[in-house]
Specification:
Belongs to the 4-hydroxybenzoyl-CoA thioesterase family. By secondary structure, this protein is an alpha+beta fold. The chain has helices spanning 24-39, 44-51, 122-129, and strands at 3-8, 53-64, 73-83, 87-96, 99-112. The chain has three helices and five strands; from the N terminus they run βααββββα. The termini are close together.
């Protein structure tokens, strides 16, 4: 089941034509992922401060399907599609009502603060399994 996060497109999100600037979709899906992680019980600040571990985006595939515009209300859907020892992959979609505007597959890796990949902590695996 996909997690949903709603947002409104502001003027600052658009280009000269009033269409959402392409890079802002990455901000929108980051907000959706961060909200999903928080809502399933993973405290990323605690993970960083107490365990010295963070999530880093390693790979992303994106597809722009239709434009979003100023004042649109969008929904970001986030769904876990794969989990490995040190990484997880989510599919994310941006919709306006029922129309799919943007989709991405995002792989994030768990890393130490020194930049070395490490296994996902048990608490993360348990939260993803729910």
């Amino acid at each position: 089941m996909a997690h949903t996060f709603d947002l409104r497109v502001y003027y600052e999100d658009t280009d000269m034509a009033g269409i959402v600037y392409h890079a802002n979709y990455l901000k929108f899906i980051e907000r959706g992922r961060s909200t999903w992680v928080r809502e399933i019980g993973i405290d990323q600040n605690r993970l960083r401060e107490e365990e010295g571990k963070v999530f880093v985006v390693r790979h992303m595939e994106i597809d722009f399907l239709a434009p979003a515009r100023y004042e649109d209300v969008l929904t970001v859907e986030t769904e876990l599609v794969a989990m490995k020892a040190s990484s997880f992959t989510v599919e994310q979609r941006v919709l306006r009502a029922d129309r799919l505007l943007f989709k991405a597959q995002v792989q994030a890796v768990c890393m130490t603060l020194a930049g070395r990949p490490v296994r996902l902590p048990d608490l993360v695996c348990d939260a993803f399994a729910k």
